[in-house]
Amino acid sequence: MIDDASAMISDANATGKHARNSQILAELEHRDSLAAWVAEAFTRSVRNNILAEGTAQAIRFAGILLFARLLSPSDFGHMRAVLAVSLIVTIFIQAGIPDAFIQRRDLSRYHECAG
């Protein structure tokens, strides 16, 4: 009887180890497929960001060329001066605000509405 019980315990331990090993292997395969998916998503994201930025730059350049053709030189100079001032103001308005939100652990409604 004791030999039968120890054999059953031994079989149960072997089955438990096999189940754990199978679970570990399945988890590793899932991690590999997850890592491949994340790498593919990252690559796709970088590609899309590069295309979007390149398109935005091309549109800006085309707009400047269009304004250069349509406006007189003095009007074009005024437009460029206004554009430069608006960009400088935008830099000062946005300076540091997103970083402060990222660093703060708890945001209140007041923080979310600020800015």
The major β-sheet equals: none
Number of domains: 2
Structural classification: mainly alpha
What are the segments in which pLDDT stays under 50 over at least 5 consecutive residues?
A: 5-9
Helix content: over 70%
Number of helices: 4
β-strand percent reads: under 5%
- N→C terminal distance: 78 Å
* SS elements, strand count: 0
Q: List SSEs in N-to-C order.
A: HHHH
Can you tell me the overall shape? elongated
Calculate the mean pLDDT score and round it. 76
Radius of gyration: 31 Å
Write a short abstract of this structure.
Helices cover 90% and strands 0% of the residues. It has helices spanning 2-70, 73-94, 97-103, 109-113.
Topology:
Layout: H1 2-70, H2 73-94, H3 97-103, H4 109-113
Task: Describe this protein's structure.
With 115 residues, the protein is mainly alpha-helical. Helices cover 90% and strands 0% of the residues. The protein folds into two domains: 1-70; 72-115, no CATH class. It has four helices and no strands. It has helices at 2-70, 73-94, 97-103, 109-113. Mean pLDDT is 76; it is low at 5-9.
List keywords for this structure.
single chain; 115 residues; mainly alpha; 2 domains; 4 helices; 90% helix; 0% strand
